[in-house]
Amino acid sequence: MGDQFAPLPHKRRGRKGKSPSRRKNAASGAATEQRTSAQDAPCLKNARLETAPIVETLDIRRNWFDRTAYAALDLGTNNCRLLIAKAGKDGFTVVDAFSRVVRLGEGMTATGRMSDEAMDRAVDALAVCAAKLKKRNVVLARSVATEACRQAVNGAQFIERVRVETGIMLDIISPKEEARLAVMGCHALLETGKGPALIFDIGGGSTELVLVSTDGIVPHIVDWVSVPWGVVSLTESERRDDQDIEVRMATYAAMRAKVSASFADFAARLPKDSGDHRLLGTSGTVTTLASVYLKLTNYDRSAVDGLHLPSAAMREVSRELASRSIAGRAEFPTIGHDRADLVVAGCAILEAILDIWPGERLGVADRGIREGILRALMASDSKRRNRNG
Description:
The strands form 2 sheets. The protein has a 7-stranded mixed beta sheet, with helices on both faces. Residues 1-62 have low confidence and may be disordered. It has 16 helices and 12 strands. The longest helix has 25 residues, at 245-269. The protein folds into 2 domains: 3-176 and 371-388, Nucleotidyltransferase, domain 5; 188-369, Exopolyphosphatase. Domain 2 (Nucleotidyltransferase, domain 5), CATH 3.30.420. By secondary structure, the protein is an alpha/beta fold. The relative contact order is 0.15. Strand 7 and strand 8 (207-213) form a beta hairpin.
């Protein structure tokens, strides 16, 4: 593959005109943020030395960069997530965030369409995001949509509805771009070691596996694959009676078999002598399983993000959850009723990944696409400022 993780140029997006909307206030604010760019900052390149010495000019530019708010919005098949941050010396500082389960892809396995109810849930969540963009005076943002919008026959209509009702311009990204952004956002959590590492993202409608080399400063993609099995699509493909443990375990085995078959070609391409088999997962599945392993009564990002756990222990947690009914899984406080019906599919996908890349330890990342977007936006904006300065 040979792709370097250089940030993609960010194109400004905006609304050319006003459209009627039942969420008028949110739409007008979000549209402003989408089309505003750092080019609206005070012009520095024409300042005279006698009135604005170089050191003062640099200070002004640096202060503006420090005050600039950036936003990354990821609308997935299951969740809607937003991060708003400001640049810092060692990365960025989050100033606002939002996450809501919207189940946009619910029912798509059978119909191929996003339902009206699912779209309503997503638009309501995006309206909250639009209000936050306005409140935080975001000047650069990128909003992306993934598998549900890629696959749905009414995906384009939904994107237009979001634009009209919230002002947010969603960019439907390719699986390759989704994988690239996820790796950009979490690769720093990889353990040191020999050989390539495998980074994976278990989503709602798809799963991405990326083999990366860490020989250089910037991660380098060696190979990658995206398969159409995520926690929503896999769950809907194997719905059965949940009351009998034998049926539950048979369903779990069928899920693993489906995912393993979809990984077969990629697994055959993996290097046989793979060094330390370093493994890092970024998704709600791995963070949820880590919280169960830690016996957390409330989810704590600081306890989970960057954690490295024995892979065998994660298999044990996965099989314990698969053996339980939905009600039994909901008893875990960090799973609850929102995730109880979907978590088993995530466990099946995780075990299929461990089968083809048997690392002794599994890294857990509560970061991914949004962080990758933010880093790309900040790097691109910084380069532009330096070039124009």
